[in-house]
Amino acid sequence: MKGKLYGVSVGPGDPELLTLKAKRIIEECDVVAYPVRVTGERSVALGIIGGTVDVSRKCILELVFRMSSDKEIRALDYDDAIAKLTSALEKGHRVCMITLGDAMVYSTFMRVGKEIENRGYEIEVIPGVPSFCDGAARAKIPLMIGTEGLAVVSAAEGSDFFRTALNDFDNVVIMKAYGSMERISEEIESLDKAPDVFVVSNIGLEDQYVGPLDKNRKYGYFTTIIVKKTNGDREAAFRTSISMGE
């Protein structure tokens, strides 16, 4: 009988945000697979579960996804990862691929899991806490109030879609912002009205930062920017939400 693949979300960094279901599924699996950018790299996801789940007797499977601009290199990495996972599944193993934040929000698992499912294997996704939700809670800034909208976009690979989002939405979450801080800062400064801006970087890690945008600060790889344009109308927004029974 073929095994089953689980995409297990482990949250943004704080081990206490690992859900009970995620913990149970990891404990029940035979193989724990984790993604890294280079061979031998310390896995943040593996570190998150390390203090909560005993993986000493499990098969630990490293999956390398190089951050290369060469599409052929990235395709090779995905093929290699899928081959390793299907090999374990063919042996009847229950396999979990752990991923930071939530597996359905810009995670490596989405593409891998879909291909595994297309090949006839059963998959299941275990949701978790996205980094921007943890960051908003730490910054004490509501992502949406009343009838406000929210856009979640990525700045990876030179994407400029955040420009459209900043113009069209009350609240914007810009993920994968690490390599685009200068471009994002310039776009925010060009807005007609200065918004509230919070940077959430390396949440749950030793060098975590939650605070205002500082162009001179060096941020970690896991950096998200939260922009709230309704800062001047916040009291009105709160009153609206109360009148709507929220």
Mean pLDDT: 89
The major pleated sheet works out as:
5 strands, parallel
Rg, please? Answer: 20 Å
Task: Measure the end-to-end span.
Answer: 48 Å
**CATH architecture label of the largest domain:** 3-Layer(aba) Sandwich
What does this structure look like?
It is a single chain. With 246 residues, the protein is α/β, with parallel strands linked by helices. The chain has two domains: 123 residues, Tetrapyrrole methylase, N-terminal domain (Cobalt-precorrin-4 Transmethylase, domain 1, 3-Layer(aba) Sandwich); 113 residues, Methyltransferase, Cobalt-precorrin-4 Transmethylase, Domain 2 (2-Layer Sandwich). The relative contact order is 0.16.
Please give a handful of descriptors for the protein shown.
246 residues, alpha/beta, Cobalt-precorrin-4 Transmethylase, domain 1, Methyltransferase, Cobalt-precorrin-4 Transmethylase, Domain 2, 2 domains, 5-stranded mixed beta sheet, disordered C terminus
Give me a quick take on this structure:
The chain is an alpha/beta fold. It has helices at residues 20-28, 44-50, 71-90, 108-118, 131-139, 161-168, 181-189, 234-243; strands at 4-9, 31-36, 59-64, 94-99, 122-126, 150-154, 171-175, 196-201, 209-211, 223-228.
Layout of strands and helices, then pairs:
Layout: E1 4-9, H1 20-28, E2 31-36, H2 44-50, E3 59-64, H3 71-90, E4 94-99, H4 108-118, E5 122-126, H5 131-139, E6 150-154, H6 161-168, E7 171-175, H7 181-189, E8 196-201, E9 209-211, E10 223-228, H8 234-243
Parallel strand pairs: 1-4, 1-5, 2-3, 2-4, 6-7
Antiparallel strand pairs: 7-10, 8-9, 8-10
